[in-house]
């Protein structure tokens, strides 16, 4: 009987959380689209505005380390930028740095671009490609929780979310981006891609070997973590781990 009641309680909790999160993401989409309200956010010494309703990820350990390590004039790649907390914080804290933000979800990329425009940041390049192990196109699964969108269907349906739809998006490798000379190579590389990290780093082996960026990585699951650890280890990186946060140099 007690076990049954606990199961009912967990089910009700998940249902309630799903309703709250779904309502939040719906409100954020409207807020960005209509540019209604951009509250001020603070991350360390950085201050910026965004149409996110809360300071999501503003207290992330990885973001704090990135801001501490980012020297004047540095180039930061934000892979899986979402609506831009990392991008906006770096752009605000280091106006002489350059940020290259990759976000493959077309709707979320527009939200990111809107936030960059709202702040008048001229040191940010917003790119609509996904990042992977080969250049081309790939299916991206959009989630009812926008933050969970992924090239892996299972990750887009994490928590209580479900896959909203799927779109074909362009994909590049970081090695190809660097080799093209369009943007400088990264001094800092942040990756949060909902289970697709192995592919991101597999397509960045030359960049890791040659340019040695400091890596900030949020793992999602053992398979992704194992793949990324193997690539970083082969490239001679030392990894410091905390729950949900890796810094590798």
From TrEMBL:
Segments forming domain Methyltransferase FkbM: 78-238
Pfam families xrefs: Methyltransf_21
Matches recorded under Gene3D superfamilies: Vaccinia Virus protein VP39
GO molecular function, one term: methyltransferase activity
Keywords: Methyltransferase, Transferase
Superkingdom to which the source organism belongs: Archaea
Annotated protein name in UniProt: Methyltransferase, FkbM family
Lineage: Archaea, Methanobacteriati, Methanobacteriota, Stenosarchaea group, Halobacteria
């Amino acid at each position: 009987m007690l076990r049954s009641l606990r199961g009912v309680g967990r089910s009700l909790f998940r249902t309630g959380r799903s309703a709250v999160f779904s309502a939040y993401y719906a409100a954020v989409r409207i807020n960005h689209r209509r540019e209604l309200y951009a509250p001020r956010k603070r991350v360390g010494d950085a201050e910026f505005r965004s149409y996110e309703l809360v300071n999501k990820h503003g207290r992330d350990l990885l973001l704090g380390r990135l801001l501490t390590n980012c020297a004047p004039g540095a180039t930061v790649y934000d892979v899986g930028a979402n609506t831009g907390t990392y991008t906006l914080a770096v752009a605000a804290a280091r106006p002489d740095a350059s940020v290259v933000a990759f976000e493959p979800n077309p709707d979320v990329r527009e939200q990111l671009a809107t936030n960059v425009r709202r702040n008048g940041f001229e040191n940010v390049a917003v790119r609509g490609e996904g990042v992977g192990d080969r250049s081309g196109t790939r299916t991206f699964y959009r989630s009812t929780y926008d933050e969970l969108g992924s090239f892996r269907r299972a990750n887009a349906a994490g928590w209580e979310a479900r896959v909203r739809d799927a779109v074909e998006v362009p994909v590049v490798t970081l090695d190809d981006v660097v080799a093209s000379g369009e943007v400088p190579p990264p001094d800092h590389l942040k990756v949060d891609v909902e289970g697709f990290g192995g592919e991101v780093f597999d397509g960045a082996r030359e960049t890791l070997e040659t340019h040695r960026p400091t890596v900030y990585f949020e793992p999602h699951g053992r398979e992704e973590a194992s793949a990324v650890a193997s690539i970083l280890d082969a490239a001679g990186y030392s990894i410091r781990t905390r729950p949900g946060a890796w810094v590798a140099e």
